[in-house]
Amino acid sequence: MSLLKTKAARTREKQLDSLNAWQGTLFSALTEFSEGQPEKRIRTFSQSTEDDLLYALRLLAGIKNSVVVIHAPRGCAASALFHQAGSGRGRWIVTNLDDRDTIMGADVKLRKAVKEVNQRYKPELLFIVSSPVVAINNDDIQSVVEELHEELELDIIPVYVTGFASHHAVTGYDTTLHSLLKYLGGKRGVHQQDNSVNLLSVAENPHDRHEAERLLLALGLELNTLPDGASKNSFLRAARARLSVSLDQDAAHYLALCLRDEYGVPFAAVSRPAGIGATRCWLAGIGSALGLEEEAQRLHELESEKVRHSLGDFTLKGIRVYLALAPSTAFGILELVEELGGEVIGITVSRLDQLHTGALEELSGRHPSLLIHVADGQPFEEVNILKRLCPDLYLGDSLHLAQVGRLGIPVVSLRDTSVLGYRGVTALARRLSTALLNRSFGEALSRTPLPYKDGWLRRSPNWHIKKEVK
Known about the structure:
Elements: H1 12-16, E1 22-25, H2 26-34, E2 41-43, H3 52-60, E3 66-70, H4 78-87, E4 92-94, H5 99-104, H6 107-121, E5 125-129, H7 132-137, H8 141-152, E6 155-159, H9 171-184, E7 196-201, H10 206-218, E8 222-227, H11 232-238, E9 243-246, H12 249-263, E10 267-268, H13 276-290, H14 293-311, E11 320-325, H15 327-339, E12 343-349, H16 357-366, E13 371-374, H17 379-389, E14 393-396, H18 401-405, E15 411-413, H19 421-437, H20 440-445, H21 454-457, E16 465-467
Parallel strand pairs: 3-4, 3-5, 5-6, 7-8, 7-9, 9-10, 11-12, 11-14, 12-13, 14-15
Antiparallel strand pairs: 1-13, 2-16
Helix pairs in contact: 2-16, 3-9, 6-8, 9-12, 10-19, 13-14, 14-19
């Protein structure tokens, strides 16, 4: 069956056997995935984490000339404030459902909101984003879309997020990308190819996206970047591209899959370009797919020489590093840390699934006993691990970095740090050097006690991770 015929994308659990709770070695993780469907775990105690609604709003904030109607109580729209403040982008309103609306339905409120926001902003695209409340009361969003699409002569796109169908917030990306292609991708089944190349960039740091665009333009390619900074026409054009290439296979997996299976656009399976070696492989994979092998190699030699010159004598030799990042970023940064002479002693990733078996196989051959911890938004487990391993440096992108800093460990946040391509290597090296040379902030922060009692921290880090009983 066509992927895009359904109302929303399947969850990551159903697509890829994704795990959100696990702890062990790289070798044991590889063994479990190699033997078939991994055994599911649950947490008997779990701290808060992001959900698919937050990820959907994050992605939609980057679509040009669009506006979002969040069909929800106003509390569900709080994250839109964060994305707007952080990026300066995104126009949205919330229907502000109350108790009566959740019981009787709120179709009338939704119609009124769509008409008002269209009159105010005159957008090219209008998104209606559902919420956990709407998923429960089952408001008929589709009828509103079909009615007002004709009346307003406007592209109205429903995005059916639920907040509870999946343990993985990245499902929000899949659901949003599903709707974007379903309504904007054009007729499916016939691939009318042009000369453009799709650069799949999903909620990337703008500096990282610009670095990737710089490198691909240097190869003489005609680019179509989406969904970051995309317009309505970007998705129609994506269906005609000669190739798709991603910056992050995790985030862009569903988009690449739909473009390949629904529109016939081939996909270059290349890893995240974090580090000199990884960027070389990224360019080589693209060059091989497009017959530009020699051009890609020359570009790598030129750019890598500039990076080595800018790094000078910087090294991480003797530095023990802990990583807490999204999977593809973590595996890429691990390679970069080793390129710079450091040693990674443990990893926390937000999820683990079939997309990562290749990386697990490659890394377990070199580091079979390396600890890998699967958790999203579980600072208690992470702090417990860090107290036992005592790393010299911590690299992460979570919202609980302050708790890690209370351990006195130098912390580098990668949430707003450029890490991709050749310029990303230089930018990250500067951040690492600053963190290692200036330890006074970490020392001051370490005088603030942790929020966990000693009795809790005496338990093993995976105390609350149990095998699911069926």
